[in-house]
Amino acid sequence: MKKEMFEPFNSSDNNFEQCVKCTICTVYCPVLEVNPDYPGPKQSGPDGERLRLKDQNFYDESLKLCLNCKRCEVACPHGVKIGDIIQLARIKYSKKKPKVRDMILANTDIVGTMASTFAPIVNPIVALKPVRLMMDGVLKIDHHRIFPKYAGMRFETWYRRYAASKQNDFKKHVSYFHGCYVNYNFPKQGKDLVKIMNAAGYGVHLLEKEKCCGVALISNGLINQATKQAKHNVEAFKKSIVDKNMPVISTSSTCIFTIRDEYPHLLGVKNDEIRNESELATRFLFRLIDSGKLTLVFKKDYKKRIAYHTPCHMEKLGWSIYSTALLKMIPGIDFVSLESRCCGIAGTYGFKKENYKTSQGVGKPLFDQIESSDVDFAATDCETCKWQIEMSTTKKVEHPISILAEALDVEATVKLWQK
Amino acid sequence: MKFDNIIIGGGLSGLTCGIKLAEQGKKCAIVSSGQSAIHFFSGSFDLLGKIDGQDVKNPLEAIKILPDTHPYQRVGIENISRLVVEAPRLLDRAGLNFFGKADENHFVLTPMGIMKPTWLTIDDFTRFEQNDAFPWKKAVILNFSGFLDFHTLFVQDGLKKYNVDTQIKNFAMKEFEAIRRNPSEMRSTNIAKVFDSGDALDEFAQKVNQLSEGFEVVLLPAVFGLFTKNVALNLKAKVNKPVVLLPAIPPSVPGIRSQILLRKRFEELGGTYFLGDIVEQGTFKNNRLVAVQTNNHGDIKLEADQFVLASGSFYSKGIVATREKLYEPILGLDIDGDTDSEKWLDEKFFNDQPYMHYGVKTDSGFHALKNGKPIENLFVAGSVLGGANALKEGSGAGISLLTSLHVAEQILK
After folding, report:
1. Domain for residue A350, yes or no?
2. Which of A7, A305, B312, B348 could bridge to A334 as Cys pair (CB 3.0-4.6 Å)?
3. How many domains does chain A have?
């Protein structure tokens, strides 16, 4: 047989060569707008990739200023995976080791387990100004940031004690990937999810053992650990989806985005068998309602004015329509649409001292919109957007699932399918 | 997910069609695979600029001699005469002020320093009545130091032909120092953002007034008003000489503002705009398109009574040519074009290229054809339609606006 004439040379798995240099992505980059030290998505992504393939010394640490919001990908008319190219370059070429601070911020699982165990002690301590100043000085975690409170009783503990035994009474079942935030910081959101799914006729189960989705590990450069956790989670999802025929739902837009898209794109962890049946609870509910399999009945006295904020990863998924459609079904809701803008926190990004100014600058147009909207509270699907908006505006933020749980007439809803 | 109408493509054509339908109370969705070609907008919409290389004076009259296969002829001269009045009104309701007449082209000064005939021009830019004279004799061309997307020498050369005495001046302001640090990002949109958010405009206007002393007119790149309206108008009010703005290299500031305002209008009318999503396939039943499946929504299909394909031409991948074949990639529709790839190109680059006339095949009612049969509820509008070389004619925007309005009227019938 004739020997192949050309060996692939300087080739790349991503599609940077699809870029036509139109620079539309740079218009919508929230970082570039406030921090000119960032080279911008076109330069950092497809343009830089061309150079990095020649010589990896072209890698520039300023790529760490990217929030990974993926708004460049949403804007790109040619489908270039600009955000992925930038993230992959960071993974492949960055020589800087993650700092102690980055490990603390990234290990939401381990830190969460410790902190929630000692929640009554940890919560007041990390909220103290001297402690925050110390964390600022020593760890470079910005002192403006207040850590989300840790819950005394983890969601998993609550579930096992109070909810697990009732779940087998239902005919249909789902698994719930609660994520770190629900488990360690805000079990109420998980309880609300169980309430709604039960009212819809579904038993809710935990995965055999879920691990943090790894999004913070990826963005902090702890790739080996992220890959390990990704493989673990894919196996745990398979046990539910493939073995038990139970889809997996979640209430965190970023966890689900990471598991569906970042696992294969950034970590090379295959998820074909589970991807289609791993989704957000709002999408799962919307599908049931849209296909006539479920009707939700709402309380007559629920009246609220709500503004919905589209988190960046929801913008990328294109799924905010499910959350907003569900909210609009509640008769007492006066719904305010916000222009889709990044809030600036991007997970652990905004906690870092060096990013604080950029983070707040990026979020300002959103904060101004929320402040002037005259709403009772804002709604969003992402936990870190919630912290950021609550810290930067006077408004509280609720998850759409919690709003539905509050407004739902459980008895009347159950009656409809029990008949 | 059920809508009355779904439009594939979120550019000028898709948005015009969507706005018209939504204004009539239709529940519409637009699926757009990314930001659109409006980002390359020059500031003017052409109806018909040239026939056989000659400037057209009265487009409405000239349309009559176009071939029967031309989209304007297929819409019908009577319909066109009506829709050319409606189009600027629709844009106006979206907050975009355009001026011009369909029966008499005016001229705009291009960044190459040439007068080009056109139909509608957005109020940022200056309309000229003649193409053989420039109203002023002494002009200053101003540019921001470090801004590489405005080619002042071209403008100067062009204006020489009109015997205009010009001088080029560059200037710097401290407000732009930050963006200048990053030479690849010293772009019109980033300059515009500085004017949008701060009070740089006053100082800038003062500077312009100083630099334009002794000149009759000021020429500047169009970098005013990205997310904020009226920045260009405010500037003109503050400068004590006439200001002529010229388009800079894209992305275009007035273009992005137009895109944002059109989308906003569509959404305020209740429309849903799916950005960054791709239609992957359609479900057909008895010569009807029942639903489309997209990348983001997967098994939750988007259903509608009528669909509009406004996916653009080659550049937007509304039609695709490989070495072997020419095809419509989304729904596999019939193409109006030569199957023999030898005939696609004229070897003389500047000639009227045959491939520029290619597009999706339709019947007389603008229904798409699939395997030779019309799809009853699938309409085609904009540059994905064949039958015209928009580049040669200067008819791209006109075809987009008028065919989409026409299609919307068919749906509303």
Report:
1. yes
2. A305
3. 2
* C-beta atoms of A22 and B39 within 8 A: yes
Asked if A316 and B276 come within 8 Å (Cβ–Cβ), the reply is yes
| Chosen domain end from A31, A65, A93 | A93
Of B184, B272, B276, the CB nearest to A39: B184
A52 lies in some domain: yes
Residues B161-213: tens digit of each pLDDT:
999 999 999 999 998 888 888 777 788 999 999 999 878 999 999 999 999 99
- Record: contact B298-A276, CB cut-off 8 A: yes
Domain assignment of residue A25, yes or no: yes
Which residues of chain A lie closer than 8 angstroms to B299, CB-CB? Answer: 276, 287
Hey, are the CB atoms on B181 and A37 less than 8 Å from each other?
A: yes
Is the minimum CB–CB distance between B171 and chain A shorter than 8 Å? no
Q: Does B267 touch chain A (CB under 8 A)?
A: yes
Q: What is the CATH number of the domain that holds A41?
A: 1.10.1060.10
What are B219's two structure tokens? 């020429």
The answer to whether residue A28 sits within a structural domain is yes
- Is some CB atom of chain A closer than 8 A to the CB atom of B182? yes
Q: What is the mean pLDDT of each run of 10 residues along chain A (419 residues)?
A: 58 83 92 89 94 91 92 94 94 86 80 79 80 80 82 93 96 97 94 97 96 93 94 97 97 96 95 97 98 96 96 96 97 94 90 90 94 96 94 96 97 91
ipTM score of complex:
0.92
Quote the domain boundaries for residue A86: 16-93
Residue A397's CATH number: 3.40.50
Could you tell me which residues come within 8 angstroms of residue B113 by beta carbon, excluding any fewer than 6 positions away? B154, B155, B156, B157, B158, B159, B161
Per the DSSP assignment, residues forming a β-bridge with B54 are B51
A289 to chain B: closest CA residue:
B1
CB contact set of B146 (below 8 Å; sequence gap of 6+): B172, B176, B180, B183, B186
Distance from CA of A64 to the nearest CA of B (A): 16
Question: Among candidates A335, A200, A214, A347, which has minimal Cα distance to A281?
Answer: A200
Sign, CA torsion A277/A283/A284/A286: negative
CA angle A33–B37–B76, rounded 5-degree value: 150
The helix (H) or strand (E) run that includes residue B127 is none
Domains and CATH numbers, chain B: 2-103+257-412 (3.50.50.60), 126-246 (3.40.50)
Compute CA distances A10 → A18, A44, A372, B195, B280, whole Å.
16, 18, 51, 42, 31
Using a CB–CB cutoff of 8 Å, tell me whether B178 touches chain A.
yes
Residues of A with CB below 8 A from B256's CB?
A: 27
Asked if B187 lies within 8 A of A318 by C-beta distance, the reply is no
Tell me which of A60, A76, A93 is where a domain ends. A93
Q: Which of A15, A18, A22, A84 to mutate: most B Cβ within 10 Å? A: A22
